[in-house]
Amino acid sequence: MKIAFVVLGSRGDVQPFVAIAKELIRRGIPAVILAQRLFQPWIEREGIQFVDLPGHLTKDMSESLVAQALTTGNMKLLLNDFYNKERLGKTVHQVLTYLKNDKDVTLVVCGPAVTFLAPMMHYLSDSMPGISMDLTIWSLNSIVQSASSLVVHAPVLKHVRNLDFSEFSNINMVKAVLPPQRILPHYFACSHNIMPRPSDWPADILVGGNVLYENRFGNNLLSPETEAFLDDGDAPVYIGFGSMAADLCTDFFAFINEVVEHSAQATRFIVKGITGKVGKFWPGTVVTSEPHNVLFSQCSVIVHHGGAGKTAEAARGGKPVVICTFCTDQPLWAEYIAKTGAGINAGPFCSLTGKQLSALINKAQEPKTTAAAKELGYRMREERGLENACDWLTSLAGGDFALREELTWLEWFWTGFLSFFGFQFLSFTKKKSE
């Protein structure tokens, strides 16, 4: 028995799968992660087998397009780069090659960016048990979301279908009728305390809780400098936007200075993502990067971008948050956190001033928000996200895998609608090219 994870995206997308693989290995179950090479040192340092996939996220994405997408909020500009059909075709081939050579693998887990390829890989790999695992609950009744996903995925699927996979299977992929993605077992590694599970979903679609990755070096210690800073005064405000390129749409140094300037003199800050110059101007500010699971519970307010992992970790810390979004699923997380009352949805970061953020930080510290954040943190800490995911995967890899026999009427409706939409879209593009 062995479980293979196929993961594309940013570090935040990869982290939960590293956590799961580590726990599986601790339980004595071999695991391998197939990802892009920039993550190889980190994954191998965690003691996990690594297999290289084509491409390099940061190099494949045009910096000018990233800047334009962030400033305009139009993430469609990046879709052609991220969902490059040639690169994804090579990715499918690489995954199938690995599965052909490693006979120990009994389950393939496709991460968020490649779930739509899971049915194809399932049949091309001689029906190797495969599942989809998402980090966000996408609503089944979202016409815009479903239609836009198909527009993005259809050209990729058309390209991949026309590739030569004869070394893996006798199936004619051009003519093959693949079942909908939802026929495969599906797992959502996110919190029902933040994002409620849709009431119309059947019992076999699982929402098991957030999978949180601990410090990459295997310890939970803050640096001595940060420890001393925390011990020297009131709980600070944390400001950090992960891998989001905040400096592409603003002068981030000037932005932070404006936040500090419009805050009460006693307010202290921990900032991630800029040089140490801020501390020289504002003695109550330090610039550092620390393990969130240790740091966040010792802060007064958490300001972040609304990524899935950061949202979960901040919520688990039990402190109020201010979410300044950039792209993808971040506005969704910001909306749900605001609904819990545990934080504030500040809207797009690129339209925010430092003065406005300072006012929102003050608002987030109102008693009602602080109490809601404390209650949400308690519920989050009671979740067994990592354990639930590993239990389920172990069961499937051990022989309990089965295709879903029944889809809800809503799933069948959307499958039919999207199939028709996809056919019309592909016909249109074919006529246009001719």
UniProtKB/TrEMBL annotation:
Xref: SUPFAM superfamilies: UDP-Glycosyltransferase/glycogen phosphorylase
Gene Ontology molecular function terms on file: sterol 3-beta-glucosyltransferase activity
Residue span(s) of domain Erythromycin biosynthesis protein CIII-like C-terminal: 288-376
Record key words, sorted: Transferase
InterPro entries: EryCIII-like_C (IPR010610), Glycosyltransferase_28 (IPR050426), GlycoTrans_28_N (IPR004276), UDP_glucos_trans (IPR002213)
One Pfam family matching this protein: EryCIII-like_C
Domain (Glycosyltransferase family 28 N-terminal) ranges: 3-111
GO biological process, one term: carbohydrate metabolic process
Keyword Transferase found: yes
Name of this chain's protein: UDP-Glycosyltransferase/glycogen phosphorylase
Source organism: Rhizoclosmatium globosum
